[in-house]
Write a structure and sequence with these properties.
single chain; 5 helices
Length: 142
């Protein structure tokens, strides 16, 4: 049976807030994983740009004694070359973790706001946001 307009609006706001929180949790998890996995690339490219005379030309001791323009260019190129495989590794880690934690199942449909009697969580999903049991056959994507 359909809800009243004010109740539907209130439930829409609640479901929208829950979906936004789940989205932010996914975004935070993705940011942490990508930052940790891409840290070697970030460091190598940073030192390459910092010590190159045409870019920043830092007066740090290691820039004067260890890194010249050729080695700085090599660091920059190396950083960008190792970025591609590390992006693939980071995405694989995120997808594996999101699937294991069943984070994509926590998004709620807006039909809960329109009709009465809908379940907040579908039975047997086993996601962290649900109190039901674990269903190993469930997929967040088809």
């Amino acid at each position: 049976e359909p809800r009243s307009p004010w109740c539907c609006l209130a439930w829409t706001l609640v479901i929208g807030t829950v979906n936004c929180l789940v989205f932010l949790l996914n975004l935070l998890l993705m940011f942490v994983i990508f930052t940790v996995v891409l840290l070697p690339t970030i460091v190598v490219v940073y030192f390459g740009f910092q010590c190159h005379s045409q870019v920043l030309h830092s007066s740090a001791r290691y820039c004067k004694s260890i890194l010249d323009d050729h080695s700085s260019s090599a660091l920059i190129i190396l950083g960008f070359v190792i970025m591609s495989p590390l992006l693939v590794v980071a995405m694989a880690i995120y997808c594996s973790l999101a699937r294991r934690l069943r984070l994509l199942v926590c998004f709620q449909p807006y039909s809960l706001a329109v009709y009465k009697g809908g379940r907040w969580c579908r039975r047997g999903e086993g996601a962290p946001c649900c109190a039901g049991g674990c269903n190993p056959q469930l997929r967040a994507w088809v």
